[in-house]
Amino acid sequence: MQVQVKQLISKAKKKDRSAQMDLYQHFKSYWYAICLRYNGNRFDADDCLQNGLINIFSKLDQFDVKRGDFKSWSAQVMVNDNLMFLRKKKNNFEAFDTEMDVEDVSTISEESNVISSENLTKLIQALPDGYRTVFNLYVLEGYTHNEIASILEISIGTSKSQLSKARKLLQHQLEVVI
């Protein structure tokens, strides 16, 4: 499978539309899941996916198949595009200290006390922007609070506070659902 991806990348670098489409088909669910994690709704996730695709394919010449993993590289492009989108949308992450506005998360999992990844994504999406962004960067992407503070142009304390509040809110919502 990895050999096939390398061949597709090589062809896509030569502007082969079929290879670009095959790469898109192969990774679209993965890329879209990243966009959904960072955005509170599908409209914003769709916009971020579109922008990320443009950047992935326009920067494809910068990717070296001998030096890195395409999936990781493309995921980083998607994360960066989502962060840029959020920066444009909200200039001050410290102002995201609002309560979660969820209509009825209790309907997410009525019959089972096991939560699906889709339902967990919905809970993460429902977090306020600041909570969700810091949670994703720290828990899912593996950034430190120092790195997050630098990326988002917030204080380290704000990063820690946003993560703590996100975890508490998710824990509470999981207790309600399960």
For the secondary structure, the number of strands is: 0
How big is the Rg? 18 Å
Mean pLDDT: 85
Order of helices and strands: HHHHHHHH
The geometry reads as: globular
Total discrete domains: 2
Which ranges are low-confidence, i.e. pLDDT below 50, for 5 or more consecutive residues?
Answer: 97-112
Continuous helix count: 8
Summarize the biggest pleated sheet: none
Instruction: Determine the CATH topology of the largest domain.
Output: Rna Polymerase Sigma Factor, Chain: A
Helix fraction, binned, reads 55-70%
CATH class of the largest domain: Mainly Alpha
Beta-strand percentage?
under 5%
CATH homolog superfamily of the largest domain: RNA polymerase sigma factor, region 2, helix turn helix motif
CATH architecture assignment of the largest domain: Orthogonal Bundle
What is the end-to-end distance?
Answer: 38 Å
- State the secondary-structure class: mainly alpha
Structure commentary:
The relative contact order is 0.11. The protein has eight helices and no strands. With 178 residues, the protein is mostly helical.
Short structural description:
This protein is mainly alpha-helical and 178 residues long.
